[in-house]
Amino acid sequence: MSTPIITIVVVVLFILANAIRILKEYERGVIFRLGRLIGAKGPGLILLIPIVDKMQRVDLRTVTFDVPPQDVITRDNVTIKVNAVVYFRVLDANKAIVNVENYLMATSQIAQTTLRSILGQFDLDDLLANREHINQKLQQIIDDQTEPWGIKVSVVEVKNVDLPAEMQRAIARQAEAERERRAKIIHAEGEFQAAEQLGAAADIIARNPATLQLRYLQTLTEIAAEHNSTTIFPLPIDLIQPFIDLTRKHAEMGPQLTGLAEKMRDQQGDESSGGATGESSEGEGGGEQPSQ
Q: What pTM did the predictor assign?
């Protein structure tokens, strides 16, 4: 009697072990009954018919796939190595099991081939500058190709772009030249703006000379605040301007005064020579009269 009971208990335990499945919240079970698709069930407790039903688990969580480095030749014939990361998850468990043999392997292969083909359509400068646009294009293309498998590709990001050493040096020289050009332009713009401000200040000072005196006083106040032992006082040119004008007038009138002095000396010499001639003639006339 004990042997049939034990046999029945073993059979019941075997049936329960093959009939009961427990699925987690992020899992779904795709049921096949005699080879035909019944559908996806879960989460929770799932009852199967032993030997008749087969179930395959599908994880609905987001999968992070790291695309290995790919050799890519850009449109301007530069060889680079590029790797990326792809985030995807299963939306339809039935399609992920029925339409493709291994959806993980299929998604990884389509991501690698798409990465090489798409990046080969861009120049190196575009690849380095328009990274966001390239990521969006990769995500859209991979998502369209994996949609029949029930896969949703949410994000594709290009991680690293490895350049040859020669190209790195060339880019460094180009960047240095660009920085020097910008520095020169900024310096020239600063000089131009400073010249404009100085010109405007000079116009204001020319219209109101007292502004220059106030500027002098402000400069002296700033120098005195530093407690210097030596103070250099800027002498305003306006104070000595009359003396400069007088000196200039004397310099201009110098030749005229010299000519006038020479004329006066010539006149005095003529007058003195004329007086001496008159006296000598009178002396000769007085000497002849007594002889008559």
A: 0.60
